[in-house]
Write a structure and sequence with these properties.
It is a single chain. The chain is an alpha+beta fold and 732 residues long. Among the domains are: 124 residues, PH-domain like, CATH 2.30.29.30; 322 residues, no CATH class. It is 33% helix and 11% strand. The protein is built from 23 helices and 15 strands. Strands 1, 2, 3, 4, 5, 6, 7, 8 and 9 form a 9-stranded antiparallel sheet that branches. Helix 7 packs antiparallel against helix 9 and helix 11 packs parallel to helix 14. The radius of gyration is 27 Å and the shape is globular. It comes from Cercocebus atys. InterPro entries: MTMR12-like_C, MTMR12_PTP, Myotubularin, Myotubularin-like_Pase_dom, PH-like_dom_sf, Prot-tyrosine_phosphatase-like. Belongs to the protein-tyrosine phosphatase family. Non-receptor class myotubularin subfamily. This is Myotubularin-related protein 12. It holds the Pfam family Myotub-related.
């Protein structure tokens, strides 16, 4: 096999170096059940530079799990620099599910590749869903190998698949006897009645709500989990009436007794007789949660009165293009238009609208002591998003790592979010691919960024969680419902001969990372007990404005919308699929309540173990720099950004711990085990803002202000006035 070392220079120089780099052998590491499909040798992996003549020789291979480049560049890294590497997916590995678009370069022209090719490219460019960009030169590869590898990659990443043909099943079968679960993983999976009863007891919701097993074996509805929670007065036979539609399902209970519920709409019917039956049914259901003056319910229709999935899909499609950069020239050419491109994508505005909606619902529950009922066609997209954000703001347990993972299990996995369709894992329908879960993680990041001490996990944890969406050895994000998972894993049905497959859960982080690397997932600044020092909150606010943020214009903000009136008929008309535009009460009262609640909370010191609200003013909603910019060398800050601050803080923590140990020794007391500070951050001089996903990289020599755009900026006075508009992307 032809394998490589680092080379550079003209194509002729590269070609003459070919013989020198064929001696070393790099092993292809295969997971259990993984099979090699095709490969090509003498492939040059480019480095992102203007000349595009520097790179690494090696083999490009395609398996039924990943595309991998086997070069010799990794040997230069010392052990300290590779401690955060992922044990499943290497630096030069791309899982087949992570491939977004494939391009070929023909005579210097870039074209999208799909289907059968009549002509094969001299250069292959792969854009990944985690925003990495790979470029491979095929000019020195044998023609037959080029055909084989390009056709193989296109077919195995773009052709529609059957669920059972996913690598997930090959891996589960091959590793069945070797699967070991992490005993330290205490995430609540919500796949038993006991889990739901525990959650009811934890939130004190068991006085008004009950866990039911009416759907055990999925005999009532394949969309719902086997166990869930409903209002206590609701007869269980009502759940069976319309296959789980039109039933208020419990999400969470507040300390004051108010509850957050969700409901999927009833099927649309034209027949007046059936409509009357549905109206009567909903009338009875509604009375179980709306009993004034003791219990009042507010309804929030997320299908008609909020974002559409199409808006989310369109916004993210534009937004991600800002980070899929092929080379330095492209980076600097687009840098001058950064803010206008960012605003035109509307992604940050969508994040703001989601956070604002969650705050409105929080105000309703916390300040007005009302139940809130979220409505959506299937209650499995925006319901998951908003209900999770509300719980994150109101329940400090959800801000711990175990609590957050349990929240995702409850609201997303058991809540029936269609991960298989929304991530387009089967490549069967591009229109169904909508990054709803990624939008949720981006909203969570805003909270983590604004209130770091309130969260036990870090932004690095959120980033690797987003990456895990595309690793098909974990079952967590590869099914549309619990029913689909159980039936395909052999846990349902009459076949008792074969043993049910035991799939890994993404929450077992030891599968992906060594213990030292996992320390970067835990926040050393997490406040375990509330501290109400008046000056504390002011100290935690970040004042610098020269950051990747975008003041959103008023014209793009969402119009004022109110909650539905409480009358039963309005809820019924909404659930029966009628037009509801005339029913929405656009009162200023809700906006006044929201503003008073929002301003009041932000005027007080933050209790990190109490209610937590984000700032949602335009400049406060920022770009999640770690996730989106981590692969772009030009965006790095050498030895700076948050990694430098964190490094100094960890040094202080170590010093305090050392002093505490000396005090303990002096008093002859038993030493308590101290949390180990991440040793990966010890030497901040060697790190950059791209840490821990990329270490010190080539620093671009291009100016912060691209010279190609100077003429458009006007004279020196105008340039001085606008200097804040053109900042280095790394200044986050």
């Amino acid at each position: 096999s032809t394998l490589g070392g680092q080379v550079g220079g003209s194509p002729e120089e590269i070609h003459t170096n070919e013989k020198e780099v064929t001696e070393k052998e790099v092993t292809l590491h295969l997971l259990p059940g993984e099979q090699l499909l095709c490969e090509a040798s003498t492939v040059l992996k480019y480095v992102q530079e203007d000349s595009c003549q520097h790179g690494v020789y090696g083999r490009l291979v395609c398996t039924d799990f990943k595309i991998a480049f086997l070069g010799d560049d990794e040997s230069a890294l010392d052990s300290d620099e590779t401690q955060f590497k992922n044990k499943v997916v290497g630096e030069n590995d791309i899982t087949l599910h992570c491939v977004d678009q494939i391009y070929g370069v023909f005579d210097e022209k870039k074209k999208t590749l799909f289907g059968q090719l009549k002509k094969y490219p001299e250069k292959l460019i792969i854009h990944c869903k985690d925003l990495r960009v790979f470029q491979f030169c095929l000019r020195y590869t044998k023609e037959e190998e080029v055909k084989r590898i390009v056709s193989g990659i296109i077919h195995h990443t773009q052709a529609p698949k059957l669920l059972k043909r996913l690598f997930l099943f090959s891996y589960a079968t091959a590793a069945q006897n070797n699967t070991v679960t992490d005993p330290k993983n205490h995430t609540i999976m919500f796949d038993t009645l006991k889990d739901w009863c525990w959650e009811l007891e934890r939130t004190k919701g068991n006085m008004k709500y009950k866990a039911v097993s009416v759907n055990e074996g999925y005999k009532v509805c394949e969309r719902l989990p086997a166990y869930f929670v409903v209002p206590t007065p609701l007869p269980e036979e009502n759940v069976q009436r319309f296959q789980g539609h039109g039933i208020p399902i419990w999400c969470w209970s507040c300390h004051n007794g108010s509850a957050l519920l969700k409901m999927s709409a009833l099927p649309k019917e034209q027949d007046d007789g059936i409509l009357q039956i549905q109206k009567s049914f909903l009338d009875g259901v509604y009375k179980t949660i709306h009993r004034p003056p003791y219990e009042i319910v507010k309804t929030e229709d997320l299908s008609s009165n909020f974002l559409s999935l199409q808006e989310i899909q369109t916004a993210y499609s534009k937004f991600k293009q800002l980070f899929l950069i092929d080379n330095s020239t492209e980076f600097w050419d687009t840098d001058i238009k950064w803010f206008s491109l960012l605003e035109s994508s509307s992604w940050l505005d969508i994040i703001r609208r989601c956070l604002k909606k969650a705050i409105e619902i929080t105000e309703c529950m916390e300040a007005q002591n009302m139940n809130v009922l979220l409505l959506e066609e299937n209650a499995s997209d925006l319901c998951c998003l908003i209900s999770s954000l509300v719980q994150l703001m109101m329940d400090p347990h959800c801000r711990t790592r175990i609590g957050f993972q349990s929240l995702i299990q409850k609201e997303w996995v058991m809540g029936g979010h269609c991960f298989l369709d929304r991530c387009n894992h089967l490549r069967q329908n591009d229109k169904e691919e909508v990054p709803v879960f990624l939008l949720f993680l981006d909203c969570v990041w805003q909270l983590v960024h604004q209130h770091p001490p309130a969260f036990e996990f870090t932004e690095t944890y959120l980033t690797v969680l987003s990456d895990s969406l595309y690793i098909p050895i974990f079952s967590t994000f590869f099914f549309n419902s619990p029913h689909q998972k159980d039936t395909n894993m052999g846990r349902e049905g009459q076949d008792t001969q074969s043993k049910p497959l035991n799939l890994l859960t993404v929450w077992d982080w030891s599968v992906q990372f060594e213990p030292k690397a996992q320390t970067l997932l835990k926040n050393p600044l997490y406040v375990e007990k509330p501290k109400l020092d008046k000056g504390q909150r002011k100290g935690m606010r970040f004042k610098h404005q020269r950051q990747l943020s975008l003041p959103l214009t008023q014209s793009k903000s969402s119009p004022k919308r109110g909650f539905f009136r409480e009358e039963t008929d309005h809820l019924i008309k909404n659930l029966l699929g009628k037009r509801i535009s005339k029913l929405i009460n656009s009162s200023d009262e809700l906006q006044d309540n929201f503003r008073e609640f929002y301003d009041s909370w932000h005027s007080k010191p933050t209790d990190y173990h109490g209610l937590l609200l984000p700032h949602i003013e335009g400049p406060e909603i920022k770009v999640w720099a770690q996730r989106y910019l981590r692969w772009i060398p030009e965006a790095q800050i050498l030895g700076g950004s948050r990694v430098a601050t964190m490094s100094k803080l960890l040094e202080m923590i170590e010093e305090v711990q050392s002093l505490q140990e000396k005090i303990d020794e002096r008093h002859h007391s038993q030493q308590a085990p101290q949390a180990e500070a991440p040793c990966l951050l010890r030497n901040s001089a060697r790190l950059s803002s791209l840490f821990p996903f990329a270490l010190l990289q080539r620093h671009s020599s291009k100016p912060v202000l691209p010279t190609s755009g100077w003429k458009a900026l006007g004279d020196e006075d105008d340039l001085a006035k606008r200097e804040d508009e053109f900042v280095d992307l790394g200044d986050v």
